[in-house]
Specification:
about 425 residues; alpha/beta; elongated
Length: about 425
């Protein structure tokens, strides 16, 4: 920014005399004062909201299985909202949006009744900490210590061992005081209705994870949530450039969106195609599992790797501390059952079309069209697939995923597959005006 200011001053036309010299000196002085007082980084001014955002500068867990203390070191006081969830046991701390200035491995291990914990942005203006518990607990006390001398301010939460019945009562109490459900969750509905007549097919791109849910982490530290958002934005741009489609994203920034909400977005928009985008990590065969994969929904996984990945992806809501709703298992409406069968048929057709295009563009895993019970693919009326761009657990895949050349090739191939899928419909629409 300083260089930009100096450059602008230097390009002004010269004015003869002392007044011009004095004017330039005053302008330069103002620029330097601005730099000093507003602490301008290379990219621009720090906004008032960013400057005022509370910051977490340290965190730790102490204690044992009978009493455990959780401590956050902060630069200013905040008031948390604390709630609980069971199956598995979790404690949720909701805070106003804060900046977490913590080491990368923070929360990966715990102590006492806290097995591990994670943190991040949960929604606009709201940060969240989720603790995985070894069993039911009771919040004995919560207090805030102001900063003293060289010691930072501290938010302290003391936990003691409880019973399942007491923890259930705590869940009910905190649920009524401050619900822990995803605010964006929409009411479930299986009502059948005709889709809107629209000129352009509507495509929903679903970059996985986000906010408090980082997704997989590559061997080199690459975060899945960042990779998939960048790629989804690139693919959206390419599709919109054609002028043939409407394209929406389930998230446009680093915020969390629950699995049920992602499904509802496709359903509410009456999307013609839903593509969930991921780049996972695997525990077994880390060196060998690599290449793009296309998944469709099935009641039984096509293989063990698919089953493991579905289990991991379906834990996204648990990771973010979202209450899980029981899903209906029986289909009572024969029309709904037929719609689901037809949707799965279209999903499978698009998956095969996509695999065919990807073969000539990028590396694919063996048997690239696979299936498993991914919750995000369960819209009964929207053809849906989940695309693994690659596996961040494999160092070769990770290196490719962050290169512009590879992402261009992948996005172009997916673009062509989408054209192939909608070509019959687009051709019919072009013929209609002449008839």
């Amino acid at each position: 920014m300083a260089r930009e200011i100096v450059k602008k001053i230097g390009t002004k036309p010269k004015v003869a005399g002392v007044a011009a010299t004095f004017g330039r000196a005053v302008t330069l002085a103002i620029a330097l004062i601005t730099l000093f007082f507003f602490n301008i980084p290379g990219s621009g001014l720090i906004s008032g909201a960013e400057a005022a955002m509370p910051e977490v500068i340290g965190a730790r867990v102490a204690g044992d299985e009978s009493r455990t203390r959780f401590v956050l070191d902060m630069d200013t006081q905040v008031t948390p909202s604390i709630s609980g969830l069971a199956k598995p046991y979790r404690l949720i701390l909701d805070l106003p949006e804060v900046k977490f200035s913590l080491p990368d491995d923070t929360g990966m291990s715990g102590r006492g009744m806290v097995e591990d914990w994670r943190y991040g942005l949960f929604a606009a203006g709201k940060s969240r900490i989720v603790m995985d518990l070894s069993g039911p607990v009771r919040v004995d006390k919560t207090f805030f210590l102001p900063a003293v001398d060289d010691q930072p301010a501290r938010l302290v939460v003391d936990l003691v061992r409880s019973t399942p019945e007491q923890f259930d009562a705590f869940i009910q109490e905190t649920r009524s005081a401050g619900p822990v459900k995803d605010k964006n969750s929409a009411p479930k509905t299986d009502r059948m209705k005709a889709k809107k007549a629209r000129e352009k097919p509507l495509i929903v791109l679903d970059p996985g994870h986000g906010g408090i849910d980082n997704g997989a982490t590559g061997v080199g530290g690459t975060l899945e949530k960042a990779i998939v958002l960048d790629f989804a934005s690139l693919l959206k741009s390419k599709l919109e450039e054609t002028g043939l489609y409407e394209v929406r994203l389930t998230r446009e920034d680093d915020t969390f969106v629950s699995l049920s909400r992602r499904v509802e977005i496709g359903h509410e928009l009456e999307a013609d195609l839903f593509i969930s985008i991921h780049a996972d990590s695997v525990r077994r065969g880390r060196k060998f599992a690599r290449g793009a994969t296309v998944y469709t929904l099935s009641d039984k996984a096509s293989d063990q790797l698919s089953e493991e990945l579905a289990e991991v992806e379906n834990m996204s809501d648990v990771i973010a501390g979202v209450e899980l709703d029981d899903e209906p298992t029986d289909v009572t409406d024969i029309l709904l059952d037929l719609a689901r069968r037809e949707t799965r048929s279209f999903s499978s057709y698009f998956a095969k079309t996509l695999v065919s295009e990807l073969k000539s563009a990028v590396r694919l895993i063996n048997n690239p069209h696979r299936s498993a019970g991914f919750r995000v693919l369960k819209a009964h009326d929207v053809p849906s697939v989940l695309v693994e761009l690659g596996y961040l657990s494999n160092e070769h895949d990770e290196k490719l995923l962050i290169t512009e050349e590879w992402r261009e090739r992948m996005a172009n191939a997916m673009n062509e597959a989408i054209h192939g899928f909608f070509r019959p419909r687009l051709a019919r629409q072009q013929e209609l005006p002449s008839q």
